[in-house]
Amino acid sequence: MALYCIGDIQGCDSALGRLLDEIGFSASRDTVYLLGDLVNRGPESAAVLRRCMQQGDALRPLLGNHDLHLLAAAHGARKPSRKDTLEQVLKADDRDAMLDWLRRQPLMRTHLHAGERLAMVHAGLLPAWTVDEALALASEVQQVLRGPGLSDFLHQMYGNGPDRWDPALTGMDRLRTIVNAMTRLRFCSADGVMDFESTEGAQKAPEGLMPWFDVPGRRAVGALVAFGHWSTLGLLDRPDTLALDTGCVWGGCLSAMRFGATLAERELLQVHCEQSQQPG
Fold first, then answer.
1. I need a labelling partner for 123 at 20 to 30 A (CA). Which of 56, 66, 226, 255 fits?
2. What pLDDT digit, counting tens, does each position of 78-93 carry?
3. Could you read off the pLDDT of 123-135 as tens digits, one per residue?
4. In the chain, how many H helices and how many E strands?
5. Does 277 fall in a domain?
């Protein structure tokens, strides 16, 4: 049995199929975690969702901002933008099955591998959160996504505030802060104030900000944190941090990391992708 993480697919099912062939994927033997943004901007979002649904527990996704955007568009909470490619899902005969499957996916996952902990989230974890605390917070959102209040939640989900975590937050302020951190975060201040304006690479951090994973004293220690979301960051492979969004939809690569006997033993596998969107 092999363990993998794969970065942002964004509706590029042909690339996903080629990458699964490249790694020799077997649904009966392997476990593959997909780090969010399964859909949108690429040409085959419906095919990605159907593939994931067919593979059962062998492909284990988590939700990214584009996946939540699809749910919001389906519930009339957000209008598709000119770059969106969601119509093939929204107009499909099996639309309801795909959307119901998507709403049941988590914001965060963990996996115990050879006694070591792998934590996975689409964008990032705030420096104040331990892995266990973040998992519990992700579960709060997951309960809402799976419950009868989904549409109300999606209509109130968007917004940049509050811009920092406070355990005393309640209601939509609490849920929105969790969602923003786990699906949108790139830069924050040393005390955890989030920035949602800059999409540049790590070397172009706005004044007073830094990549969330570089904040001194962040509490998600003792685990390898794998994430996607940040194509301008690209591949980042550190002992405690693994970034795997390598810009598939922009004409880059779709990347998988295969773990060996330990989480430190890693092998990068990639396929080149046709450009589906122009950056900017």
1. 56
2. 988 889 999 999 999 9
3. 999 999 999 999 9
4. 8, 13
5. no
Alpha-carbon dihedral of residues 211, 214, 215, 221, nearest 10 degrees?
130
pTM above 0.70, yes or no: yes
pLDDT band at 278; cut points 50, 70, 90: confident
Round to whole Å and give the CA distance between 20 and 136. 31
CA atoms within 13 A of residue 189's CA, in its CB half-sphere: 9
Distance CA 117, CA 245 (A): 21
Task: Give me the sign of the Cα torsion angle 102, 135, 229, 197.
Answer: positive
Q: Is residue 280 part of a domain?
A: no
Q: Which one, of 2, 31, 209, lies nearest residue 120 by Cα?
A: 31
Q: How many domains does the chain have?
A: 1
- Does residue 145 lie within any of the structural domains? yes
